[in-house]
Design a protein that fits this description.
The chain has 225 residues and is mainly α. It has 2 domains: 55 residues, Orthogonal Bundle (Arc Repressor Mutant, subunit A), CATH 1.10.10.60; 167 residues, Orthogonal Bundle (Tetracycline Repressor, domain 2), CATH 1.10.357.10.
């Protein structure tokens, strides 16, 4: 039977349950070891029902990528909507991104696996994020809020900052010793975080770096020493 769109509210709820279960299963087991039966078990739904909504494991994986993309963009947009300038928008957007990552670690694990499982889904994920980012930076540059840095280059660079900071301090989370106690280590050790959130001093240093990179004053000094 070919999968189709849900036609009722109950159908929408069932599909939502399957997507949420897929988020858990793909995040925990990875694509290779995830199975349709594991997804349906996690959703509490019969395996035969799966095929009313999805043709294959790959299809639900792709729809999960799209769903995570939609939700993280929505969270960032909502957080930055009330801000009055680009730097405040960056600050609010990054806070929302890190919170979403803490709540949905599958965002990292699924997106990274998409590089090998479904490269088209990976590219679409980043493209959808960067398009809005470029538009916002271009508008900020026109308003004189930031320098005349290339908005495309800046958008990709800022996304890279968010991904690496989030991976280091949010995704890897606590390290536990043999006696189940959290271990704190050097900040240079990528496994030493002991947190599930970006520490405030790390966040402020990140923002200091971003403000310096985007700031119109610094750019003007370089051009007119």
């Amino acid at each position: 039977m070919s999968a189709g769109l849900p036609r009722t509210a109950r159908g929408e709820e069932t599909k939502r349950k399957l997507i949420e279960a897929a988020e858990q299963v793909f995040s925990r087991f990875g694509y290779a070891d995830a199975s349709i039966s594991r997804i349906t078990d996690a959703a509490g739904i019969g395996q035969g029902t799966f095929y009313l909504y999805f043709d294959s494991k790959l299809q639900i994986f792709n729809e999960l990528v799209e769903d995570l993309n939609h939700r993280v963009r929505l969270a960032m947009s909502a957080a930055s909507a009330a801000t009055e300038n680009r730097i405040d928008s960056e600050r609010a957007g990054f806070r929302a991104f890190f919170q979403f990552t803490a709540d949905h670690p599958a965002l990292y694990r699924v997106i990274r696996e998409a590089e090998f499982v479904s490269p088209g889904a990976l590219r679409l994920h980043y493209t959808r994020i960067v398009e809005g980012y470029i538009a916002g930076l271009r508008a900020a540059g026109a308003a004189g809020e930031i320098s005349d840095i290339d908005p495309t280059v800046a958008a990709w660079a800022l996304m890279g900052i968010g991904e690496m900071i989030g991976m280091r301090w949010v995704l890897w989370g606590d390290q536990v010793s043999g006696d189940d106690e959290a271990v704190e280590g050097s900040g240079a050790d990528p496994f030493a975080s002991g947190t599930r959130a970006v520490p405030e001093h790390v966040f402020e240093q990140m923002m200091r770096f971003i403000e310096g990179a985007l700031g119109a004053t610094r750019h003007a000094e370089v051009r007119n020493p």
